[in-house]
Amino acid sequence: MKRLLFSGVAVALAMLVAPVVYAEENPYTYKNLPEKDDQIKMVVAHTVNMEWSSHTATLKRFTELVAIYTNNEIRGEIFPGGQLGGEREMAKQTRQGQIHVSLPATNNLATMAPSLNVFILPYIATSTEEVNYLQDNLTPFLVPRVIEEAGVRIVGWENSGWRAFFYKSDEPIEKPADLAKFKMRVPPNPVMIATYKAWDANPVPLGWTELYNALQQGVVDGGDNPVTDVIGMKFYEVINRMTRFHYTILTHPIIVSEKWFQGLSKEHQEAILRAGREATDYIRWWQPIDEAHWWEKAKEQNVIVTDIKDETEWVEKARKIWPDYYQNIGPDGEMVANKAVAIIEEHRAKMK
């Protein structure tokens, strides 16, 4: 008994005199790597102003991997929250080499690189696994086209999640006819606008940065975006419902200025490409975990969530627009779309 009592006292005394260990950030991240005189500066930019989102997680990972694989010979600096402009503006700056890496939405980059409209065709894929497989197998074909069209190189992908309707209403959106009474914001992309019209909806093309004020002022009644964007940007202050379905997923290619890329050594180019591949794999693991958290937050904010159980009518109406918009992909748009469909069918066959 005395021995046990002595042991307890000894432990208590040890705890009193032991040094306190404080939680600290990693001392070596992309933010604070040692500076060198001959370091190559890499300007990285995006529009999201949340500290942690799939955007920030992707680009932080990419930037750190570039530093690792170049032995700190390339030092990245990230400019979040649209500090260097909107997505389209930053894509143009990336083409010019003023920005070296950016993360525009696929639908926004498609204004410069129309080949990417193949990813915007509604219901081209209906699961995250299909989207990932399509990206992996179609991107090598698209890379030289996008370089030619936009002067940027796709080195990886970020997926933000499936676009879901968000809106204010007493009743849920469950079928296309339900959209008729809403003015729905859509990105200014012709394929996405046509998709809403195919559902007999009232699309209002509007930039992302204008959206919150437009919702407040009643210019629009809702729109569609992944839950991370909707809840992270506090849209629950002006909407009360969301409806989940699978017409398109919001994706952002990691793009690198081709002008800047071609000025790098072969070793540095390989490091950039490797970092892009690994950042893609990382965010495919990270994003679904993060998204589940945001759906919980939506419920905490009393947002009513509806799932469309049968999307047949949505699919049939939306896919009818495809032939009219092959030209938005390019002169060979139908061939590119068929190539994408063949890749998806290949994946489905493997999954049987």
TrEMBL record:
Q: Which domain of life is it from?
A: Bacteria
InterPro entries found in the cross-reference section: DctP_fam, TRAP_DctP, TRAP_DctP_sf
Q: Which GO terms describe its biological process?
A: transmembrane transport
Instruction: Identify the Pfam families for this entry.
Output: DctP (PF03480)
Q: Give GO cellular component annotations, separated by semicolons.
A: outer membrane-bounded periplasmic space
Provide the leader sequence positions: 1-23
Swiss-Prot/TrEMBL keywords: Signal, Transport
Q: Which family does it belong to?
A: Belongs to the bacterial solute-binding protein 7 family.
NCBIfam families the UniProt entry points to: TRAP_S1
Q: What is this protein called?
A: ABC transporter substrate-binding protein
Organism the protein comes from: Sneathiella litorea
